Amino acid sequence: MIVLGVESSCDETAVAIVKDGKEVLANAVYTQIDIHKEFGGVIPEVASRHHVQKITYVFEEALREANITPDKIDLVAVTTHPGLIGSLLVGINAAKAFAFAHHIKYVEVDHIVGHIYANYIESDFNFPMIALVVSGGHTELLLMKDHYQFELLGETLDDAVGEAYDKVGRVLDLEYPAGVKVDNLAATGEPSYHLPVVLLDKDSYNFSFSGLKSAVINTVNKCHMKGEEINKADLACSFQTSVVKVLVSKTIKAAKEYNVKQIVVAGGVAANKGLRKGLKDATDEIPGLILTFPKMKYCTDNAAMIAVAGYFKYILSNTTNY
Fold first, then answer.
1. Helix axes 161-171, 178-186, angle to 10 degrees
2. How far is Cα 10 from Cα 158, in angstroms, rounded to an integer?
3. What is the largest CA-CA distance in the chain?
């Protein structure tokens, strides 16, 4: 079964073609990072405009890369939520038009579910499993007992972890997108600053990163007022150490409580080297527990993950959205 996926929830215009939920035949992505860099973040209206300008070309690039014609495509899958409304509408309308024009079945996919299924490209799923979703807009811990069965165990009560990274990066005068730069900087420092590790209630799987972010900002402000020099590498390392400790401790606690066979990590922050090492070190101590991260190119927004998620949604329900 060949699925064409479309993703336009934020600032990446992406179209991919995937066979049987596993084999990526094409994964075309047009990124707007350089465009939004001068603003220090994504401007929704600007993002929508560039999606409109590029969506047709990205469709053509994916078809050319896969060396396939529309009549060979069995299903079109598109991200419909969550995301920037204007950006989403561009992808949705393009996907619907393509599906209608070529008489192809069409399904709508949750963006977060797509991130989870990015892991399936690299590894089969072993249920039950825990999915840790870490991105710019989301931090969630989910239990999956089978495909498309999601039980929310916990979520952020305030800032998402990726949002906290970006705001800390901005305070440290790092260029947008700052998250990866904080990660790289942290690798060169030591956790010499005292920052809070916010675990909340011991039985809770919820997260809170607003206080940690504020602690970093307050540390920087105090140093400025006192005329003291900030060791940016050490502060980034201290921040990341606190973040990783919270994410790892709650994920491992859930894995043990629910006796899962696998942990999958999903979302842009899944590319974080500190988190990858922290979770690997922790899971290595639990015999038989599988840990899966997507390849770096599938951590950030892409359409291959949407095609895979759409494939499973369709074969499990055998229904379409029109």
1. 80
2. 20
3. 68
All domains in the chain, ordered by first residue: 2-117+299-317 (3.30.420.40), 124-293 (3.30.420.40)
Rounded to 10 deg, the angle between the 178-186 and 273-283 helix axes is 60
Quick check: 50 and 85 in contact, CB under 8 A?
Answer: no
Nearest Cα to Cα of residue 262 among 289, 242, 228, 243? 289
Strands (E) in the chain, as ranges, are 2-7, 12-19, 23-31, 75-81, 105-110, 129-134, 139-144, 151-155, 262-266, 290-292
Residue 247 tokens read as 């994410």
The verdict on whether omega for the bond into residue 177 sits within 30 degrees of 0, i.e. cis, is yes
Cis peptide bond upstream of 82, omega within 30 = yes
pTM: 0.95
Secondary structure (DSSP) of 51-103: HHHHHHHHHHHHHHHHT--GGG--EEEEEEESS-HHHHHHHHHHHHHHHHHTT
Place of tokens 């920052």: 195
Q: Which residue in this structure is represented by tokens 């420092």?
A: 189
List Cα–Cα distances, 225 to 98, 143, 218, 221, in angstroms: 58, 46, 10, 6
Q: What is the pLDDT along the chain (322 residues), one digit of tens a residue?
A: 999 999 999 999 999 999 999 999 999 999 987 888 878 788 999 999 999 999 999 999 999 999 999 999 999 999 999 999 999 999 999 999 999 999 999 999 999 999 999 999 989 999 999 999 999 899 999 999 999 999 999 999 999 999 999 999 999 999 888 899 999 999 999 999 999 999 988 889 999 999 999 999 999 999 999 999 999 999 999 999 999 999 999 999 999 999 999 999 999 999 999 999 999 999 999 999 999 999 999 999 999 999 999 999 999 987 667 5
Phi, psi of 207, rounded to the nearest 5 degrees: -125, 155
